[in-house]
Amino acid sequence: MRRRALLALVGVVVAIIVTSVTGLVLQGKDEAGAGPQTQLLIDGPTPPAPVPDDGPAEGQVEGTPEETARTYLSDWATGDYESMRELVDEPPADFAAQHRQLDDALSAQVVRLKPGKVTKTGEQTAEMRFTGARKLAGYDGAWDFASTLRLAVRDLSWKVLWTPAVMHPDLAEGGELVRIDEPVPATRFVTKEGRAFPHESYAEPYLAELGTRIPQPPSGTEVGWTIELRNPAQRPRVLLEKKAAASEGTKTTVEAFTQAAAARALDPVQQAAIVAVRASTGEVAAVADRLGGREAFTGKYAPGSTFKTVTAAALLDGGLSADSQVPCPATYTIPNGRTINNYQEKDHGSVTLQQAYALSCNTTFARLAVQLVSADRLMEQAAALGFGTSLATGVGGTCGSLNRPENPDALAEASFGQGTVEASTLCMASVAAAVQSGAWHPPRLLPADVAERIEGHAPPASVPLNDTVVAGLRSLMSAVTTEGTAAGSELPEGVSGKTGTAEDWQGGPDHAWFIGYKGDLAFAVFVKHGGTGRNAAVPIAARFLRAL
């Protein structure tokens, strides 16, 4: 009797309200009563209100299917699952849990319910079509659905014949709706122009390392998801999906065309690397590495005669000029020390400093270093060109290193890039860049602020070079390609550089180097155990530069 009176009262209230509005808006509150969580709309045709009386006659059916259906939807709107359960014939024990689990699984909330017209399907059966909508996390609109409430008389009252299809029309007994969220995407790195890296760029280890160092997108980053229907004995079916917006990617300093040219220049070669740097900024324009790992940035090898660029800078700063006459004998014996040999023990007699550099005279640079350059001065000049510097590239890496020469033998060896001198390919590219631009700029693979955040320290400051030193070095490097060890090669016009052949202190074949610049693009080519710089490194540089 109390249930019948409640149904009658609901009918009266609804009838009164619809005389002035088209529907009823119900608001749910959170557990703390802090305010509405959502607005759920119940509208549609309203049946005539029954007139309350003292109760049904003996054997008379209590209420109407309209009353039961509308009360059921009203309870659903407010999340009153226990009241809904009372209106269901033989409800499952987990009736309320099934509703909660479905919404939790979808990260969803029912936001609209709209009843339709009740149709009698028999003496004691009826059905009501209704529509609804759920709001899903991460979905701009509402996910509409339509289902049917089937009703029947049970124990002289109208009851809902409930199945999971009431919650969603495609849901079967034992089935479930599952939301599959895509994982937060890893940071995608692109070139300076915003393009994908070229195929087989040989920069993959650097991009992988960036991915481990750059924080992943925050938890609020919009991702894709799929709503999947999983019914027993049926194949899973996608009902709704949202594709994650394609990431524009995080830009590096790498230039797409320059990177492609570097990679293709290395295709025929194993155990080699190219690093190209914009001389005016220090931005890494290309890094193609077939040495394994990130050796072009982190691996350090004897730079051989390319280090004569550093020694020449100290000599020029000390008063020599490119035209200064210097001896280039086949051998030079350090007073009370070891004997230094030229390559193939060639004797070039008296030459200019420019010619000695272009011909790569070991004896000249060993003698001048011992006589004119102190150990401290060589260390200072190397530091000005990045040696001993921890670089903030974004993927780690160092420039180069050398121990302070403690005797003339060690100073002579260091003067032409042997002994304790070591450098990375990146380091020597930055040395060439300093000659072109007139200042040493710390090389970097990412925007400066991003690289600093990743490395945990600010990038080293740029170091301007003496104008006289820069002019002299440019003259020396130009002579290498016009009259020196790289002359007559396939290098394009306008390239300045320095070859290098370095002994492997572990006893393997010599390493080959070539550093240089053309316009604002400086570069270093390194071939591990490649032999001479002229034969192994220069052809790679020629392929690279001719492709630009």
From TrEMBL:
- Region Disordered, annotated ranges: 35-66
Domain (Penicillin-binding protein transpeptidase): give its ranges. 273-544
What InterPro entries is this protein classified in?
Answer: Beta-lactam/transpept, Beta-lactam/transpept-like, MecA_N, NTF2-like_dom_sf, PCN-bd_Tpept
Occurrences of domain NTF2-like N-terminal transpeptidase (ranges): 64-174
Q: What is this protein called?
A: Penicillin-binding transpeptidase domain-containing protein
| Pfam families listed in its UniProt record | MecA_N, Transpeptidase
Q: Which domain of life is it from?
A: Bacteria
